[in-house]
Design goal:
Elements (H helix, E strand, L loop, with lengths): L28 E4 L10 E4 L2 E4 L5 H12 L4 E3 L6 H6 L2 H16 L2 H5 L12 H4 L10 H8 L11 H20 L4 E4 L21 H11 L5 E5 L6 H7 L5 E8 L25 E6 L5 H18 L3 E6 L16 H12 L5 E5 L5 H17 L2
Parallel strand pairs: 1-4, 1-5, 5-10, 6-7, 6-9, 7-8, 9-10
Antiparallel strand pairs: 2-3
Helix pairs in contact: 1-12, 3-6, 7-8, 10-11, 11-12
């Protein structure tokens, strides 16, 4: 049984609450929601072993406290309807995530085996189906595998609310940028770049960066570029825009060919398809790569975005490439993140910065603050 651990209580953040219509100062505005703390992954199942969850609610607090100390203004996300979300994701996935935990708790599974979080156990892969048509599974414990593609990404009682609040953070940030803010940071949690059109996984449920990019398109930007600096390839974001030319995707990440998630994709020869040919750029790096190689790759992505003629930028800001982070073998420093922020700010594009990974709580907030300092100083 994986126990349900209550999340920390909401913090009193009244001084930083409220929406804004314009941004003053050089520091990027921060959009957040206390509801993003409602998702409590008490554990993960990795190669059949129950391990402690790393994508914890305390990530929000670590980042928020550091950014307030650094002088950033925080505002709460505004609620949005599902129109952009359902443009990015298949409606079946959205509907599934909204109700699956309630359906799970209403089934026999909690009493039968004591499992109170949704964990897939069977997956209708192409290899399993062998060309046969896939039907909607009747049993909820089977249906979980139609939408979740790994056993690490559990769904609990607050998962939907937190993931949906993260989407509102991304959409609110896009609104502020469309209204004239040069750069806005969305404190999204859970992260999103591993979520595909019709599936969730990799600790991601809804793709916040993709939602932000689509919102910027809806606001009138002709071409949006997404630059993903998370330690792992954003397979979900890449897949969503792989055949589109209006949204380009570039990523620097640890080489999946060296045995790292997402394993099957994220290689340099993946450059887009159809209308999106040439609109994807993957820069996989060897384990042990530190500031010099990593920042050079970020600089290459910045040059690529400039050549694309993009009119807006979305940054998937994972800080799990940092040396102290337990989830990757890259060795980027605080200075490396600040330099990356300056390089991408140098593009001069209106920018939404979306939080992705980063799991070492003692250094997490400082790493995000360093990137934002670079982005602010680089404008």
């Amino acid at each position: 049984m994986l126990p349900i651990v209550p999340g920390p209580p909401p913090l009193d953040l009244a001084p930083s609450a409220g929406a804004v219509t314009r941004v003053d100062g050089d520091k990027p505005l921060v959009v957040w929601s206390p509801v993003t703390r409602a998702h409590v992954p008490s554990a993960e199942v990795w190669v059949g072993v129950v391990t402690a969850g790393s994508e914890v609610p305390e990530r929000v607090d670590a980042i928020r406290v550091s950014l307030e100390a650094a002088g950033h203004r925080l505002v709460t996300a505004e609620p949005h309807d599902d129109s952009v979300l359902r443009r990015v994701h298949d409606a079946a996935l959205v509907d599934h995530l909204e109700v699956v935990h309630d359906e799970w708790m209403a089934s026999e599974i909690p009493d039968l085996v004591g499992q109170r979080q949704v964990v897939p156990y069977a997956f209708p892969t192409e290899a399993m189906l062998g060309g046969l048509p896939a039907r909607r599974a009747v049993a909820v414990h089977a249906r979980a595998g139609q939408f979740g593609y790994d056993t690490m990404t559990l769904v609990g009682p607050g998962t939907w609310e937190a993931a949906r609040a993260a989407v509102d953070c991304a959409l609110s940030a896009a609104d502020l940028v469309a209204a004239g803010a040069p750069a806005v940071y969305a404190l999204c949690r859970p992260p999103g770049h591993h979520a595909t059109r019709a599936a969730y996984g990799g600790s991601c449920y809804l793709n916040n960066a993709a939602v932000a990019a689509q919102a910027l398109r809806n606001h009138g930007h002709r071409r949006v570029a997404i630059v993903d600096v998370d330690a792992h390839h954003g397979n979900g974001t890449a897949a969503l825009f792989y055949a589109r030319r209006d949204v380009a995707y570039g990523s620097v990440h640890v080489d999946p060919g060296a045995g790292w998630f997402p394993h099957y994709v994220g290689f340099a020869d993946e450059t887009g398809a159809g209308d999106g040919a040439g609109a994807t750029l993957n820069l996989p790096l060897a384990p042990g790569t530190a500031d010099r190689g990593w920042t050079a790759a970020v600089g290459r992505l910045a040059d690529w975005v400039a050549d694309l003629g993009a009119t807006a930028l979305v940054v998937s800001l994972g800080v799990d490439a940092a040396a102290d982070d337990p989830e990757s073998p890259l060795l980027v420093s605080v200075d490396g993140y600040e330099r990356a922020g300056a390089a991408l700010a140098g593009l001069g594009l209106p920018t939404v910065i979306v939080q992705e990974g980063g799991y070492h709580l003692p250094s997490l907030g400082g790493l995000v603050a360093a990137y934002l300092a670079g982005h602010g100083n680089g404008r």
